[in-house]
Structures are given as structure tokens and as C-alpha cells.
Amino acid sequence: MSSADRQIRSAVPGVSAEEAEFEQLMRRQAVMSMALGQAAAEVVGLNATQLNCLNLIALDGPLTAGQVAAGIGLTTASTTAILDKLEAEGHILRERDPHDRRRVTVTINMERGLTEISPLFIPLTLARTRLLGSHSPEETQLILEFVRKNTALLGEAIERLRAMSPRRKSS
Length: 171
What we know:
Elements: H1 3-11, H2 17-43, H3 48-60, H4 65-72, H5 76-88, E1 92-97, E2 100-108, H6 110-133, H7 137-164, H8 166-170
Helix pairs in contact: 1-2, 2-3, 3-5, 4-5
């Protein structure tokens, strides 16, 4: 049993060895995802936070600066500075909302994203697709259900931790 397994099992009574290994693997996957984002960001001359902004905008855009800030957990002022840099470098486009001219949203510059950033992730995407395809349709549905539920749990954990933040309580 690894020290991380022991740590998890001592912190959470009743956790089995298999559950502790699962939690350790989930933590390792989180660290590796962060390292992957950092490595990809470096290739295209960004930092990991800037790439996270782009990823959020690509997934959920168009978004306002406030929505991006809420999504990545930064202040609106910090996020605006990041968006200014991303716009100046051609990664995003700012557009006025046709229904509310006071509202400005950001979207991904697909040409830049498709030529510079997406190719960095194609090998991983293809490998994951092959991995998922190696499972039966029933297993695939179970995996997808797990990932959906885990994504929701992560969102809940983020909200819980943000509510505990002294920085957010004072603002």
C-alpha cells in the first residue's frame, strides 16, 4: 500500500484499499491534466490559465468576461487582462451582444484554435477514442455516466471550496 493510500484510508474511515487506490488514481489524473495543460500552453506561448480560459470559452462560449471569471475562479479584473492578451494575440474575438449592446461576449477564433491548439491534442483524443472503443456499448455507457457524474461532483466541490475562501468572503 502506498503512502497516499494510507493517507486516504486514515483520513476517511471505512475506505477500502480499492477505494483508496481509486482516489489516488483520480488525484494523479488531476495532476497529469494540469501538467498536460501547462505543456500545451508552453508550446503555443501561453500560460496554463490562459489556455484554461480558451478551453472554457471553446466549451461554453460565447461568454461574458464575468462568466469566464466565474468559470476559472479569478476576479473579473484579472480575467479581463487575460482576455485582452488573448484578443491581442488573435485567440479570441470580442463581440457585442445584438440584443443588448452593453453586453460584450468572447468567442474562440476558430481559425487560430484549429491550426495551433487543436493539433496538440489530436494524438490524445485519438488514443482516448480507441480506448473507449475497446469497451462494449454497455461498458461505454457506464464510463460516460461515471464521467458525467464525476464532472458534476467536481463542480460541487469547486463551489464548496470557493464558498470557504476568505478572499471570496471579503469581496
